[in-house]
Design goal:
It is a single chain. The protein is mainly β and 374 residues long. The protein folds into two domains: 318 residues, no CATH class; 53 residues, no CATH class. The protein is 13% helix and 43% strand. Strands 1-4-6-8-10-12-14-16-18 form a nine-stranded mixed β-sheet, covered by helices on one side. The longest helix is centred in the last third of the chain and has 17 residues. This is Iron-regulated ABC transporter permease protein SufD. Belongs to the iron-sulfur cluster assembly SufBD family. InterPro entries: Fe-S_cluster_assembly_SufBD (IPR055346), SUF_FeS_clus_asmbl_SufBD_core (IPR000825), SUF_FeS_clus_asmbl_SufBD_sf (IPR037284), SUF_FeS_clus_asmbl_SufD (IPR011542). It comes from Thermostaphylospora chromogena.
Length: 374
């Protein structure tokens, strides 16, 4: 249940393309209570001037169609309606939308790579991307965010009947960057979506992945890894909305925090509506708080409106390294510092192995190693 006994679903009931439908957040709202609004640099209250520079480069295999289109293209708004004020601001402020289409019954041999590069944190930039995987097609997409920017965007994954889409999203920004993004996956009949998020850089990153089902048989896995340093605010807010029968979802996010003022926020909302009989879902978040002065907020929410489910559960845990694990390794001659690093490597190892693109997997592993050396 949400605040004051209200169902979680009421937090997501009023999507709109109209910015005026979303009041300026004050920080007292459930959806914004963990976010330091003063560090959003005006993305939430329309004071951010759209003078920022963010470049987007696309590398796509043969057969994949890429287009830059205007707001009047019907594909831009076909699969997603903004769910909060920053999302609506991004929708109303972008210049051109990127449309990537994987044609029916194709399976590109190489990943589709979308590089997002910020050149300055002076002024804001906005973006909109739609990735459509047509029926019975398969694709892997890498979203790579780097540089300095104040950036808000929406990324829509429209997965057709029987299609499979795997997405890896890296938030590897410079220390002064602010990024607020909504990732939305819409799944057709028997469609499969695998989303992996690695958030490592930036001053403030707030990422909101969501999943909606349009027909039975949809299968979604959302996996995330984050490492928060001193002064960073990294926030992930997940919504999985089960509104049709016999669909599956699994959410697994892990994070580590170190340094004064390091703040991680994870909110997981799973809704199983009355008509969604046969749903099978689970969500889990775990945080390692490695030093004093770091804070992890973890809020799993599960709203079940039907008694006919295959399975539903959630769990959350935040704490220090397990002293027994450290003692076990020290008893075998491993120094304490190295023992701690080994435990943290093992904590993230299961997730890193899920990254299917070798270059990206190695890059994330190196980033975690660099954090361990701090």
């Amino acid at each position: 249940m949400g605040l004051e006994g209200k169902p979680v679903s009421t937090l997501h009931e009023k999507p709109s393309y109209d910015l005026a439908d979303f009041p300026v957040p004050t920080g007292r709202e459930e959806a914004w209570r963990f976010t330091p609004l003063g560090r959003l640099r005006g993305l939430h209250d329309a004071t951010a001037k759209a003078t920022g520079q963010v470049g987007v480069d696309v590398s796509a295999p043969d057969g994949v169609i890429t287009e830059w289109v205007g707001r009047d293209d019907p594909r831009v708004s076909a699969a997603y309606v903004p769910a909060d004020r920053v999302s609506a601001q991004a929708y109303n402020a972008f210049d051109k939308a990127l449309i990537v289409t994987v044609p029916k019954e194709t399976a590109p041999a190489e990943p589709i790579t979308i590089d997002v590069r910020g050149s300055s944190a002076d002024g804001a930039a906005y973006g909109h991307t739609v990735i459509t995987v047509e029926p019975m097609a398969q694709a892997v997409v890498v979203l790579d965010h780097r540089g300095s920017a104040v950036y808000a965007d929406n990324v829509v994954f429209d997965v057709g009947d029987g299609a499979t889409l795997r997405v890896i999203s890296l938030q590897d920004w410079d220390d002064d960057a602010v990024h607020v993004s909504h990732h939305h996956a819409r799944l057709g009949r028997d469609a499969t979506f695998r989303g992996f998020v690695a958030t490592l850089g930036g001053d403030l990153v707030r990422l909101s992945p969501s999943v909606a089902y349009t027909a039975p048989g949809g299968d979604a896995d959302l996996t995330g890894l984050y490492y928060v340093d001193a002064g960073q605010h990294l926030e992930h807010r997940i919504l999985v909305d089960h509104s049709v029968p016999n669909c599956r979802s699994n959410v697994l996010y892990k994070g580590a925090l170190q340094g004064d003022g390091a703040h991680a926020v994870w909110v997981g909302d799973v809704i199983i509506r009355v008509e969604a009989e046969g749903t099978d879902t689970y969500e889990y978040n775990r945080n390692l708080v490695l030093t004093d002065g770091a804070r992890a907020d973890s809020v799993p929410n599960l709203e079940i409106l039907t008694g006919e489910v295959a399975g539903a559960g959630h769990a959350s845990a935040s704490g220090r390294l397990d002293d027994e694990h450290i003692f076990y390794l020290q008893a075998r001659g491993i120094p304490a510092d190295e023992a701690k690093r080994l435990v943290i490597r093992g904590f993230f190892g299961q997730l890193i192995e899920k990254i299917e693109v070798e270059e990206v997997r190695e890059r994330v592993a190196r980033a975690v190693e660099a954090e361990l050396e701090k």
